[in-house]
Amino acid sequence: MGEPVKLQFKKKLAEVLEQPHIPANRLRGLPDCYKIKLRASGYRLVYQVTDAQIIVLVLSVGKRGRSEVYQTARHRL
């Protein structure tokens, strides 16, 4: 993953910390998990929100191809 992609995710994660529960980005089948999409580069980031301690945990980052990023996140839960 290149530096421009890392910077884009860093910016998006800063926004997520302010409002982590975005209904449109909720993932079915993964409890309390949401996604960040970088459409231009095709990357996805899956994160889980724990409200009790206000934790945003990044579970997986990768290309969308064959849903591997989502399968990795499911495995890590």
Account of the 3D structure:
Helix content is 32%, strand content 30%. The protein has 77 residues and is an alpha+beta fold. It has a single domain, classed as RelE-like (YaeB-like fold). A 3-stranded antiparallel β-sheet has the order 1-2-3.
In short:
The chain has 77 residues and is of the alpha+beta class. It has helices spanning 3-18, 68-76, and strands at 33-38, 43-50, 55-63. The chain has one domain (3-76): RelE-like (YaeB-like fold, 2-Layer Sandwich), CATH 3.30.2310.
Describe the protein's topology:
Blueprint: H1 3-18, E1 33-38, E2 43-50, E3 55-63, H2 68-76
Antiparallel strand pairs: 1-2, 2-3
Count the strands? 3
- Proportion of beta-strand residues: 25-35%
Radius of gyration: 12 Å
Report mean pLDDT, rounded to a whole number.
88
CATH class: Alpha Beta
Overall 3D form? globular
For this structure, the CATH topology is YaeB-like fold
Tally of discrete structural domains = 1
Quickly give the CATH architecture. Answer: 2-Layer Sandwich
Structural class: alpha+beta
Order of helices and strands: HEEEH
Low-confidence stretches: none
CATH-wise, what's the superfamily?
Answer: RelE-like
Count helical runs.
2
